[in-house]
Design goal:
The protein is α+β, with helices and mostly antiparallel strands and 325 residues long. The chain has 13 helices and 8 strands.
Amino acid sequence: LDLKDTDIYKELSTDSFNLKDDKGKVASIGYCYESYGLIVNKKLLKKAGYEVSDIKNFESLKSVAEDIHKRADKLAFTSSGMDDASSWRFTGHLANMPLFYEGRDDGWKEAPATIKGKYLDNFKKTWDLYINNSKYDKNTLATGGYDAEAEFKNGEAVFFQNGSWEYGNLTADGALTDDDLAMIPIYIGVGDEANQGLCTGTENYWCVNNQADEADIQATLDFMNWCVTSDLGTKTMAEDMGFVIPFKGAQESQNLFVKQDTEYTAAGKTPVSWNFTTMPSEEWKNGLGQALTAYAADQTDANWDAVVSAFVDGWATEYQLANGQ
């Protein structure tokens, strides 16, 4: 159903997160947005002799992390587990970084049939930083059954790549408080990093089946609109679900990471958009994950070449399959 003239569409505070076809049809509404970056344990960072303000770009992040790893009982990054419960953080969220910059340079308006991999050297440097400055065995990333969230909560690492959805999990039992935490951008050494914000976007959309019964369609639209306009609906979205919703009646989130994203944007930092909708398939991410895992276990040039091939050649192959070419 084209949602353009619906009541819920009129309640949107931004059109930035919606999906449209080439004729302007609003096929789905992005009903919440989230941010991700590097979550920092400020207490551990200070114990190592640093402040969040010391980290301004990739080079300073690298310097701080490597010094922590060397001096402070290997307390730098959480494990980069490549099992199904964790690999999405790297094959999706970290991989978004080189895609964002390439798409920005080349002016992507839709998913491209081929990509160049212009920023894969930066991707490599960041992946190397993660896996070489963690206390966990790089040979078992695929099968180690690591729990990066628990590691971070237990004070085993300063840095944890994840998103605003982690806030409740990290603070629920009081082990970590707002005073202990911060979220900083994922720096990979590209562009004006002093003015880079968090990665902000959505993979969460509402759409309505236009083949459904008319009464069901209307009931669905009414319920969606209730969720974003009523006191109970907006409170539930903000407090119980932890969502930031792009609607006029949204209630203020108490999520620290959401507030920090707002502060970054208010300070003129440029958010990194989510480009996951351009990724051609889950199989592309699976192939990239396998290559990253093999490289982590044996960091040779040949194994990194296989990562580049999975990223670039795998993209072209999966795009053709996905589009019946």
